[in-house]
């Protein structure tokens, strides 16, 4: 082997030896982590064709990377999209989707008033100061959405499939039709529902966005996001990304893909556990109100029945503690022995979050009140533990609140 390395100096060997072995004659069973920032071909003519996009292939990792390609193909497949773009976080994915949607459309956004806190900030503190018209409305009120579309002529509309933290479910299919007829791109944040429960592109959305950090990666060990696009919007998405480079690192791509392999299994179990936890909480005298889409008295039962996969209602449960404020909620959270008080959701372990302190801290108290987020509201992300253990821990902490 030694004589095959023609340049003999150590410094030269240090950067050439061992590397650039063509993958021929075998196929790895999982996609390796390609950390290479650029890619070369047998001759420059071939590289020229790749640069010119006459031939498919990686050339530079801001344009595309084989590890990211694998994750993007997987996510496009799960969400029935034409393709997707892996981004460095869920928020980066949302920023990219909005930016791409508005490039050739009217600089006006009609957004659901119930959104993830940072998404509200993205619209109010990033897009609005750039001169984009931003209007928030209640997306569960179709008359209000209709009126906002007529008044504000949006180029983009933004909503979540299951809202955070009150778990409302708007009529994505009817809103998608409305967006289409108005020439607006509908962007749906499907982080809470996941493609197991709903696939918005199948019912007319232009873009689906996820925080991969949550159910998809699922283990609390990776930050990432994804934009899935329909046929019409895929090339503009790729073109924007090639210039701006909001891309996910290949290690995080690998971690996400590893997590996604078990995501349907985890999600089914988490949904089943959430049903049991919601019932137990509803029967607890220390609880004032439980929010869960399976509740027959849920305000959006019709949309849930029409849009959700059968027998799946998501794995988020929100609830209000009776006669409680910030102090009692803190005592409740401190008294939990197993459920983790962490600022995330969708992991294998159960987690509680206090929206007024965390996810909706950035929203003004007035906006919080309009969204119905009270100071006794707690949001629970149900994990894959034994349902009995989750319930026992919650009941114990409620006794100590
Ligand atoms: C977490 C989350 C985001 C943001 O994702 P990051 O990966 O934290 O940037 C956006 N939308 C929803 C619904 C989320 O839960």
Structure characterization notes:
By secondary structure, the protein is of the alpha/beta class. It has two domains: 7-260, Aspartate Aminotransferase, domain 2 (3-Layer(aba) Sandwich), CATH 3.40.640; 263-399, Aspartate Aminotransferase, domain 1. The chain is 40% helix and 13% strand. It contains 15 helices and eleven strands. It has helices at residues 10-16, 44-51, 66-78, 90-103, 117-127, 142-152, 172-182, 194-197, 231-244, 250-260, 263-282, 301-307, 326-335, 365-371, 387-399; strands at 83-87, 108-112, 133-137, 156-160, 185-189, 207-211, 225-229, 287-291, 316-321, 351-353, 377-381. The strands form two sheets. It has a seven-stranded mixed sheet, with helices on both faces. The protein is globular, with a radius of gyration of 23 Å. Pyridoxal-5'-phosphate (PLP) binds at residues 89-91, 116, 118-119, 160, 164, 189, 191-192, 211, 213-214, 223, 225, 345.
Order of helices and strands: HHHEHEHEHEHEHEEHHHEHEHEHEH
Summed up, the helix count is 15
What's the number of extended β-strand segments?
A: 11
Named at the architecture level, the CATH assignment of the largest domain is: 3-Layer(aba) Sandwich
What CATH calls the topology of the largest domain is Aspartate Aminotransferase, domain 2
Shape: globular
Beginning-to-end CA distance, first to last residue:
70 Å
Brief descriptors of the model:
single chain; 401 residues; alpha/beta; Aspartate Aminotransferase, domain 2; Aspartate Aminotransferase, domain 1; 2 domains; 7-stranded mixed sheet; 4-stranded antiparallel sheet; 15 helices; globular; disordered N terminus; binds pyridoxal-5'-phosphate
């Amino acid at each position: 082997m030694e004589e095959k390395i023609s340049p003999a100096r150590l410094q030269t060997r240090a950067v050439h030896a061992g590397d650039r072995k063509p993958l021929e004659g075998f196929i790895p069973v999982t996609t390796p982590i390609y950390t290479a920032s650029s890619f070369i071909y047998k001759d420059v003519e071939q590289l020229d064709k790749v640069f010119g996009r006459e031939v498919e292939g990686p050339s530079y990792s801001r344009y595309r990377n084989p590890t990211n390609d694998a994750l993007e193909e997987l996510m496009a497949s799960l969400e029935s999209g034409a393709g997707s773009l892996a981004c460095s976080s869920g928020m980066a994915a949302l920023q990219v989707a909005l930016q791409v949607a508005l490039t050739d459309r009217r600089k006006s956004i009609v957004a659901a008033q119930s959104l993830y806190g940072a998404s509200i900030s993205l619209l109010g503190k990033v897009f609005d100061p750039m001169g984009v018209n931003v209007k928030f409305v209640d997306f569960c009120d179709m008359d209000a959405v209709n009126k906002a579309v007529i008044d504000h002529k949006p180029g983009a509309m933004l909503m979540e499939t299951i809202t955070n933290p009150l778990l409302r479910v708007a009529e994505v299919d009817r809103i998608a039709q409305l967006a289409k007829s108005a020439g607006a791109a509908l962007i749906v944040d499907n982080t809470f529902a996941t493609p197991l429960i709903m696939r918005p592109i199948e019912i007319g959305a232009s873009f689906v966005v996820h925080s991969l950090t949550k159910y998809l990666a699922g283990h609390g060990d990776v930050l990432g996001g994804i934009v899935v696009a329909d046929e019409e919007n895929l090339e503009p998405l790729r073109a924007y990304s090639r210039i701006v480079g909001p891309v996910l690192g290949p290690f995080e791509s690998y971690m996400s893909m590893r997590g996604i392999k078990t995501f349907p299994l985890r999600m089914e179990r988490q949904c089943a556990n959430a049903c049991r936890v919601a019932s137990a909480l509803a029967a607890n005298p220390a609880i004032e109100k439980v929010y869960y889409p399976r509740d027959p008295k849920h305000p959006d039962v019709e949309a849930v029945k029409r849009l959700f996969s059968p027998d799946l209602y998501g794995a988020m449960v929100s609830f209000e503690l009776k006669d409680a404020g910030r102090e009692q909620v803190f005592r409740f959270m401190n008294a939990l022995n197993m459920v983790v008080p962490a600022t995330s959701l969708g992991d294998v372990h159960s987690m509680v979050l206090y929206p007024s302190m965390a996810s909706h801290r950035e929203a003004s108290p007035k906006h919080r009140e309009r969204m119905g987020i009270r100071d006794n509201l707690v949001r629970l992300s149900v994990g894959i533990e034994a349902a009995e253990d989750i319930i026992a821990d919650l009941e114990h902490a409620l006794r100590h609140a």
